[in-house]
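Q: I'm writing up a methods section and want to include an example of the input and output format. Could you take the sequence below and give the corresponding predicted C-alpha cells, formatted cleanly so I can copy it straight into the document?
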Amino acid sequence: MGNSGSAVKVCADHQGGINWLSLSPDGQRLLTGSEDGTARLWSTADSQCHGHFQGHESYITFCHLENEAAFTCSADHTIRKWDVVTGQCLAIYRGHTSIVNRILVAKDYLFSGSYDRTARCWSVDKEKQIQEFRGHRNCVLTLAHYSSKDVLEEEEEEEEEKVSRDLLVTGSTDCTVKVWWVSSGRCYQTLLGHTGAVLCLILDAPNRELFSGSTDYTIRTWNIVTGEQLKVFKEHQGSIICLELVNRHLYSGSADRTVKCWLVDTGERIQTYKAHKHSVSTLKYHAGILFTGSGDACARAFNSRSGVLQKIFRGHKFIINCIQIHNELLYTASHDGTLRIWDIRGICKRNKRLSRLFNNKVGCMVQQENGNHETVELM
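A: Here is the clean output for your methods example:
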C-alpha cells in the first residue's frame, strides 16, 4: 500500500475546472486552461501565477505552451495565441464552426481538431488558415503530426507531395484514423478497424508505427506507411483514455480503472497497475516511475517494473485531467479548479535505490545460472 502525500502548494486562482496543463519546452513555465474561459501562466521557479490570459467567450478545452508563445482553444470555436511576457493576445484563428477540442503546434504550423468534423492547419505567424481536412463523419478528437522524411524513403513518396512532406493524423468519433498530406489536404490513408471512438493517438515515427486507443476497449498498432494493422491489444475492459510510449513499452490508461504495460514488439502485456477507484484519465512515465491521475481525484505513483503502488497523492476534490513533471516536482491539474504541486524527490530517490537492488539481485541470479561473472542491466 502506498503512502499518502500532501501538496507542497495549492494554486486556486481559477474560477472553474482546469481542463489541460502544458509545460514549456525549456521547463520554465506552465500553462493551465480552464472552464472559466481563461488561461494562466505559472513559473516553475516560484510556482506563482505570472500571466492571466482573458478573451475567450467560452471555456478553454485545451492549451499548448511554447517558450515564447501560448496557444489556447475554446468552445467559442476559436484558437488564440498569446505573448507569454506581456499577456497580449497576438492572434485569433477563426474558421471552425463548433467547439475546438485539440490543438498541436509543429514548426510553423498550428493544427486544430473540432466538433465540426474537420481538422485545420494555420500559419502560426500569419493568423491565416492554410488547409482544411474534411472527410471525417464525426468529431475530430485527437491529433498527431510527422514528416514523411522521417518514415518514407524518397522513392516511396508521391511525386506531388515531395515539396511539403508534412502529414497530419486525426482520430475521430467516427471510429477511424485518417492520415492527411498537409500541403494538399488530401487523405493519404484511412485506418479502419476500431468499432468505437478514437480517443488517443501516439506516434513512433522512427519505427513507422502509430498507436490508437478507443472506446472499443482496444489499442491498435498501425504501419503508417502502408496503413496495415499490425497488432490489437485486447485485455482492457473499458475505454482507452490515454497512452504513453517509453523505450518500446506502451502504457495504456483505461476507464476500467487500470493501466497496462505492453511490449510493443511482441504485443505481450507485462504489467497491470491497479488501485484506482475510477477511470485513469492521465499518465506520465518518469525515472522508472509511472504517475497516474484518476477520476477518483487522486494521483498515484507506481514502480513501473514491479507494478507496486508507492505513493498516493490526495487533496483534489474532482477528476485529475492532466499531470506534468519537472525538476522532481509533480504538477496535477483538476476539474476542482486547482493546480497542485507535489515534491517527488523522496520517491524518485527511493525508486532508484530499489532499481539498483533489483538489478543486483537479477545479476546474481544470472551469474549463478551461467556460472560466470556477467551482470545484466535491465531497462
